[in-house]
TrEMBL record:
Protein's name according to its UniProt entry: GNAT family N-acetyltransferase
InterPro entries in UniProt: Acyl_CoA_acyltransferase (IPR016181), Bact_Acetyltransf (IPR050832), GNAT_dom (IPR000182)
Any Pfam family matching the protein: Acetyltransf_1
Keyword Transferase carried by entry: yes
UniProt keyword terms in alphabetical order: Acyltransferase, Transferase
Taxonomy, superkingdom: Bacteria
UniProt entry tagged with the keyword Hydrolase: no
Organism field: Luteolibacter soli
Domain N-acetyltransferase, chain residue ranges per copy: 7-174
Amino acid sequence: MKTLASFLIRHATGRDAPRIAGIQVRSCQAACKGLVPETKLRQLDASRRAVEWKDVLGTPCEQTILVAMKGTRMAGFCTFSQSQDPDAGPTTAEIGSFFVDPLAWGRGAGHELAEEALDQAKRRGYSRVTQWVIGANDRAKRFCESIGFSPDGVEKTEDISGCPVRELRYVRAL
Protein backbone atom coordinates (compact mmCIF):
# COMPACT_ATOMS: atom_id res chain seq x y z
CA MET A 1 0.00 0.00 0.00
CA LYS A 2 1.37 3.38 -0.99
CA THR A 3 -0.01 6.85 -0.57
CA LEU A 4 1.13 9.31 -3.20
CA ALA A 5 0.22 12.97 -3.71
CA SER A 6 -3.53 12.51 -3.73
CA PHE A 7 -4.44 8.84 -4.17
CA LEU A 8 -3.98 5.76 -2.04
CA ILE A 9 -2.70 2.95 -4.25
CA ARG A 10 -3.38 -0.48 -2.77
CA HIS A 11 -3.95 -4.10 -3.76
CA ALA A 12 -7.52 -4.94 -4.74
CA THR A 13 -9.70 -7.22 -2.63
CA GLY A 14 -12.86 -9.19 -3.43
CA ARG A 15 -14.96 -6.34 -2.02
CA ASP A 16 -13.62 -4.10 -4.79
CA ALA A 17 -15.14 -6.19 -7.60
CA PRO A 18 -18.31 -4.09 -8.14
CA ARG A 19 -16.39 -0.81 -8.25
CA ILE A 20 -13.70 -2.24 -10.54
CA ALA A 21 -16.41 -3.52 -12.89
CA GLY A 22 -18.19 -0.15 -12.89
CA ILE A 23 -14.98 1.69 -13.73
CA GLN A 24 -14.15 -0.79 -16.48
CA VAL A 25 -17.57 -0.39 -18.12
CA ARG A 26 -17.73 3.42 -17.81
CA SER A 27 -14.17 3.81 -19.06
CA CYS A 28 -14.74 1.45 -22.01
CA GLN A 29 -17.92 3.29 -22.93
CA ALA A 30 -16.13 6.65 -22.87
CA ALA A 31 -12.84 5.57 -24.48
CA CYS A 32 -14.40 3.40 -27.20
CA LYS A 33 -17.09 5.89 -28.23
CA GLY A 34 -16.85 6.18 -32.00
CA LEU A 35 -14.59 3.12 -32.22
CA VAL A 36 -17.19 0.50 -31.32
CA PRO A 37 -20.89 0.71 -32.25
CA GLU A 38 -22.93 2.52 -29.57
CA THR A 39 -25.30 -0.44 -29.27
CA LYS A 40 -22.38 -2.68 -28.28
CA LEU A 41 -21.14 -0.18 -25.69
CA ARG A 42 -24.61 0.07 -24.13
CA GLN A 43 -24.64 -3.71 -23.74
CA LEU A 44 -21.62 -3.70 -21.43
CA ASP A 45 -22.87 -5.01 -18.09
CA ALA A 46 -21.14 -3.96 -14.87
CA SER A 47 -23.03 -6.51 -12.75
CA ARG A 48 -21.85 -9.39 -14.96
CA ARG A 49 -18.31 -8.07 -14.95
CA ALA A 50 -18.46 -7.72 -11.15
CA VAL A 51 -19.07 -11.47 -10.88
CA GLU A 52 -16.07 -12.10 -13.15
CA TRP A 53 -13.86 -9.75 -11.11
CA LYS A 54 -14.98 -11.35 -7.85
CA ASP A 55 -13.85 -14.72 -9.24
CA VAL A 56 -10.51 -13.27 -10.36
CA LEU A 57 -9.93 -11.54 -7.02
CA GLY A 58 -10.91 -14.68 -5.08
CA THR A 59 -8.48 -16.97 -6.91
CA PRO A 60 -4.73 -17.00 -6.26
CA CYS A 61 -2.96 -16.01 -9.46
CA GLU A 62 0.18 -14.41 -10.78
CA GLN A 63 -1.66 -11.21 -11.67
CA THR A 64 -1.28 -8.11 -9.49
CA ILE A 65 -4.36 -5.89 -9.27
CA LEU A 66 -3.95 -2.36 -7.91
CA VAL A 67 -6.62 0.25 -7.23
CA ALA A 68 -6.38 4.02 -6.82
CA MET A 69 -8.52 5.40 -4.01
CA LYS A 70 -9.39 8.96 -3.10
CA GLY A 71 -11.10 8.70 0.25
CA THR A 72 -13.74 6.01 -0.17
CA ARG A 73 -14.07 6.56 -3.92
CA MET A 74 -12.19 4.32 -6.35
CA ALA A 75 -10.72 6.32 -9.23
CA GLY A 76 -9.12 3.54 -11.25
CA PHE A 77 -7.37 0.18 -11.35
CA CYS A 78 -4.69 -1.67 -13.24
CA THR A 79 -3.38 -5.20 -13.51
CA PHE A 80 0.00 -6.57 -14.42
CA SER A 81 1.66 -9.96 -14.72
CA GLN A 82 4.32 -11.68 -16.78
CA SER A 83 3.74 -10.99 -20.46
CA GLN A 84 2.13 -13.77 -22.49
CA ASP A 85 3.29 -12.33 -25.81
CA PRO A 86 5.11 -15.01 -27.83
CA ASP A 87 8.22 -12.86 -28.21
CA ALA A 88 8.42 -11.88 -24.51
CA GLY A 89 11.05 -13.26 -22.20
CA PRO A 90 10.63 -14.04 -18.49
CA THR A 91 11.67 -10.51 -17.46
CA THR A 92 8.90 -8.80 -19.46
CA ALA A 93 5.75 -7.80 -17.58
CA GLU A 94 2.52 -6.71 -19.22
CA ILE A 95 -0.08 -4.25 -17.99
CA GLY A 96 -3.18 -6.20 -18.90
CA SER A 97 -5.89 -3.80 -17.75
CA PHE A 98 -5.64 -0.10 -17.09
CA PHE A 99 -8.86 1.81 -16.47
CA VAL A 100 -9.55 5.16 -14.84
CA ASP A 101 -13.08 6.37 -14.18
CA PRO A 102 -13.86 9.07 -16.77
CA LEU A 103 -14.82 11.40 -13.88
CA ALA A 104 -11.20 11.11 -12.68
CA TRP A 105 -9.47 11.55 -16.05
CA GLY A 106 -6.74 14.17 -15.90
CA ARG A 107 -6.58 14.19 -12.08
CA GLY A 108 -3.46 12.06 -11.55
CA ALA A 109 -4.94 8.65 -10.70
CA GLY A 110 -3.56 7.07 -13.87
CA HIS A 111 -0.06 8.43 -13.33
CA GLU A 112 -0.01 7.28 -9.71
CA LEU A 113 -1.33 3.82 -10.59
CA ALA A 114 1.27 3.49 -13.35
CA GLU A 115 4.09 4.63 -11.06
CA GLU A 116 3.21 2.03 -8.43
CA ALA A 117 2.70 -0.77 -10.98
CA LEU A 118 6.07 -0.01 -12.60
CA ASP A 119 7.79 0.17 -9.19
CA GLN A 120 6.33 -3.19 -8.17
CA ALA A 121 7.23 -4.78 -11.50
CA LYS A 122 10.83 -3.60 -11.14
CA ARG A 123 11.06 -4.89 -7.55
CA ARG A 124 9.88 -8.30 -8.82
CA GLY A 125 12.74 -8.48 -11.29
CA TYR A 126 11.08 -7.38 -14.50
CA SER A 127 13.28 -5.30 -16.79
CA ARG A 128 10.63 -4.15 -19.23
CA VAL A 129 6.85 -3.66 -19.34
CA THR A 130 4.45 -3.76 -22.27
CA GLN A 131 0.91 -2.49 -22.67
CA TRP A 132 -1.52 -2.93 -25.57
CA VAL A 133 -3.42 0.20 -26.61
CA ILE A 134 -6.29 0.64 -29.06
CA GLY A 135 -4.66 2.22 -32.11
CA ALA A 136 -7.41 4.80 -32.59
CA ASN A 137 -7.42 5.84 -28.92
CA ASP A 138 -5.26 8.96 -29.05
CA ARG A 139 -5.87 9.77 -25.36
CA ALA A 140 -4.51 6.37 -24.27
CA LYS A 141 -1.52 6.65 -26.59
CA ARG A 142 -0.66 10.11 -25.22
CA PHE A 143 -0.99 8.81 -21.68
CA CYS A 144 1.36 5.87 -22.36
CA GLU A 145 3.90 8.20 -23.90
CA SER A 146 3.63 10.59 -20.93
CA ILE A 147 4.74 7.79 -18.57
CA GLY A 148 7.68 6.72 -20.72
CA PHE A 149 6.20 4.06 -23.00
CA SER A 150 6.70 4.08 -26.77
CA PRO A 151 5.26 1.93 -29.56
CA ASP A 152 7.52 -0.90 -30.69
CA GLY A 153 5.79 -1.51 -34.04
CA VAL A 154 3.96 -4.71 -33.05
CA GLU A 155 0.21 -4.75 -33.78
CA LYS A 156 -2.66 -7.19 -33.31
CA THR A 157 -6.42 -7.27 -33.76
CA GLU A 158 -8.57 -7.87 -30.68
CA ASP A 159 -12.29 -8.40 -30.35
CA ILE A 160 -14.01 -5.72 -28.26
CA SER A 161 -17.72 -6.36 -27.81
CA GLY A 162 -17.85 -8.28 -31.06
CA CYS A 163 -15.91 -5.68 -33.07
CA PRO A 164 -12.36 -6.16 -34.38
CA VAL A 165 -10.09 -3.40 -33.07
CA ARG A 166 -6.44 -2.77 -33.99
CA GLU A 167 -4.12 -2.56 -30.97
CA LEU A 168 -0.56 -1.29 -30.77
CA ARG A 169 2.02 -2.56 -28.32
CA TYR A 170 3.78 0.02 -26.19
CA VAL A 171 6.94 -0.81 -24.26
CA ARG A 172 9.03 0.73 -21.51
CA ALA A 173 12.33 -0.36 -19.98
CA LEU A 174 12.53 -0.38 -16.18
